[in-house]
From TrEMBL:
Key word Transmembrane present: no
Protein name, UniProt field: Crp/Fnr family transcriptional regulator
Family annotation (Gene3D superfamilies): Jelly Rolls (2.60.120.10)
PROSITE patterns reported for this sequence: CNMP_BINDING_3
């Protein structure tokens, strides 16, 4: 598992192999069972995660009690709720393991200590965040101008295995459609 972390970090930094080995060796790796809630909506996040194995869902429950899926995270993706600048710092989302997961579990309370301990880590983290945010902006813009069928087709192209890993009602919510509409789209494409 440590090799996965090192290879991922190499894409964003020119730190030496010895430095990467040291950083990867200091990161706690935790196993979570399917169904484990990592963060409840309304809690203040104190952890961030990097997925080595498994699938995690980001969702919220609206005022009518309806669950809305905002994202799915799979291998080699990071899961962080950025809300340091909000007034109460409470998360608008819940984070849940929808498969058994192996995750790097980062402690946000020691983030600055890690940056001081490992010079170059902050720059690498910034590069990762910029890439993640850029991808989210692109995906959101594409989502806004596409039809439900185009959204589904784009998902199949970009993340083909995801449709077999998540519940169809959650996938439909993520695509902004009803489960019945998703079924019709799938039938049309068969």
């Amino acid at each position: 598992m440590k090799d996965i972390i090192i290879q991922y970090m190499k894409k964003f930094t020119d730190l030496s192999d010895a430095e990467l080995e040291k950083i990867a060796g200091s990161l706690p790796i935790t196993t979570f069972e399917k169904g484990r809630i990592l963060l409840h909506q309304g809690e203040v996040p104190d952890k961030c995660y990097f997925i080595l194995k498994g699938c995690v869902r980001q969702y919220a429950v609206d005022e009518n009690g309806k669950e809305i899926t905002y994202n799915f995270f799979t291998e080699q993706q990071s899961v962080t709720i950025f809300n340091k600048n909000s007034n109460d710092k409470a998360s608008n989302y819940s984070i849940c393991c929808i498969e058994d997961c192996v995750l790097v579990e980062g402690d946000l309370s020691i983030e600055q200590d890690m940056y001081e301990l490992y010079p170059g880590l902050e720059k690498m983290t910034r590069k990762i965040i910029v890439e993640n945010i850029s991808e989210m902006h692109y995906d959101f813009a594409a989502f806004m101008v596409s039809t439900p069928q185009e959204r589904y087709e784009a998902l199949l192209k970009k993340r083909p295995g995801l449709v077999h890993r998540v519940a169809q009602h959650q996938l439909a919510s993520y695509l902004g459609i009803t489960p019945e509409s998703l079924s019709r789209i799938k039938k049309r494409l068969e």
